[in-house]
Amino acid sequence: xxxxxIITSAVIVSTIGVALFGYLLIIMLGNYxxxxxxxxxxxxxxxxxxxxxVISSLFVENREPVSIDEVPEHVQEAFVAVExxxxxxxxxxxxxxxxxxxxxxxxxxxxxxxxxxITQQLAKNLFLSNEKTLLRKTKEVVISINLENRYxxxxxxxxxxxxVYFGHGMYGIQAAANYYFNKNVKDLSVSEGAxxxxxxxxxxxxxxxxxxxxxxxxxDVVLSLMEQQDLLTPEEVVRAQGKTLGxxxxxxxxxxxxxxxxxxxxxxxxxxYAISNEELMRGGYTIVVxxxxxxxxxxxxxxxxxxxxPGTDNxxxxxxxxxxxxxxxxxxxxxxxxxxxxxxxRVNKQRQPGSTFKPLAVYGPAMEEDKFTPYSLxxxxxxxYGSYSPRNYDGKYEKxxxxxxxxxxxxxxxxxxxxxxxxxxxxxxxxKKNGLSIEDSGLALSLGGLxxxxxxLKLANAYRTFAxxxxxxSAYFIKxxxxxxxxxxxxxxxxxxxxxxxxxxWNMTRMLEGVVNEGTAKAGSYLGDLAGKTGTTSYPxxxxxxxxxxxxxxxxEVTGSIWMGYDQTTKDQYLVEGSRYPTRLFKDILTKTHPExxxxxxxxxxxxxxxxxxxxxxxxxLSASYxxxxxxxxxxxxxxxxxxxxxxxxRIYEKDxxxxxxxxxxxxxxxxxxxxxxxxxxxxxxxxxxxxxxxKEGPGSQxxxxxxxxxxx
Length: 713
Fold this sequence. Notes:
Organism: Metabacillus arenae
Largest sheet: 5 strands, mixed
CATH superfamily of the domain at 64-241: Biosynthetic peptidoglycan transglycosylase-like
Keywords: Carboxypeptidase, Cell membrane, Cell shape, Cell wall biogenesis/degradation, Glycosyltransferase, Hydrolase, Membrane, Multifunctional enzyme, Peptidoglycan synthesis, Protease, Transferase, Transmembrane, Transmembrane helix
Pfam families: Transgly (PF00912), Transpeptidase (PF00905)
Shape: elongated
Domain Glycosyl transferase family: 52-226
Low-confidence stretches: 15-32, 101-114, 709-713
GO biological process, one term: regulation of cell shape
């Protein structure tokens, strides 16, 4: 007897020892199988504009984690009632539930009931694969027990409710409440909480959208279970079961016009702030962007209109970007006419800029270096520079032309001559300050003839330097990024560089206004102040074929660019028209989205405004006559038709025999008197207009002799 007691005691001690050893082993194994990083649930990031309005969400799993304190008690009870009624009693494994499940399985001959606790479901969903093996089940038990030891019941329930899938792409109780009822979880009623608790078992089968009848039946089962577990009174259950599903579906709006912009946001987050696309979609960040959604959508819709894209077929492409002048924030970005998410985003793809490069590489530097002024005369001749022989697109040359006119009429010969005068390296130095690092070292870069080209984004931002009175700073898509605790973890830093003086920038603005008002950018209509430049590059494989067509311009508020062309130009696919098409589209977008046409460019303090160009017309209506005047005896009176421009100077020349001399001048007048004239000499007179800007004379009249009567020649 004594021996039996000893043996029994030994068995009991051994059993306890084995159990204790097993429990300790489970605890130790937990440190190896629990990866706490997996407890950090994926959370959707949110794009908001600068006013805090939500634009879109970025997510792998659409989830917005909430604290258990925000979940009403009746909602917590609904989940516990249907998923794990002994949740607050067991330590991860519910032995009673497992036994009951096995018993029912044996009776039916198949698996009819599960015995998993909420903790086991959390362990399975966060740490394990879906394989059906004994080892996986063992790991599930080990993880569940260890989770119970590490975390409170409230924390475990919180993790479960934030992790579980509710169907229709919604993960977590907050996302589900917002989607199905358009409210926050803290505002859920008893019946609404029961409906959500009914979904995790089979989200598709019990979907209130796909199967409303089954969904209501399942909800009512949950309510009945809550009554059985004394969580609700019979009266409360009757009232709750009598309610309809009460859905208020918040549909996820498909916004294709946002795709190119969002992709550029994600690209900037990765390149500038080292936040990967995956992390951005999982980390629950708030990303503040300068997007103007109305402009983005309008531009997207207008890019669909084929009338703006003059290609040999309907596959001509384009890109558009619009920047805020003061901040550099990107207000809109269209990466193509048929852009798809993570597609070929032409906003930052390099293309040949053509004549849009002239202000940046040639004329801006020429003025800043004090080599030339807007009304300096430039050579406009078909010259050759070694093997390079630039030609004007229209084949016309004027020998000399002002910088102003060379720019508005896009004279290639004058631009190349000017760059040759200031030096290629000088032009490249200013390009680099303007965010454009160019490898090319030939005179062709003055006309935008580059090996690699420039992107619409960088070209627009370079022009913004003129709009911002010569100051350059980088454009940006992300103003700031906040983490889930609303702490700013990344922010755009404004670092400004003065590339051009305010005077140079202002002179360029006035000249580029001339391009729009009377030059190559006259196409289309925009009633506000607009300065800009066109650019066109030809496809060498076919006469008349255009490869790249551009307009880059700015108003007092915004700067933007439009590129048009084919991704690959061929002899069969090319643009049949040039820059007037992007010019017209740009103006139409501004007219629809920025109608504040009363805004005007304002001359900065301390800056001298640029006079409008003086245009000289020939003097061909001169008359000369003698007359008697008191005290001046005989006077020669010269009369001619003056120009409307009062700034024109008229020079008076006298010719006596073979000698010719300047005897006087008058500004803005059409008459001149020469007193004390000698009627017996052979003097003749002519009038010549003079331009004070260029210091050049225009076509004058012929020499004529005075007569006693007015005569005209």
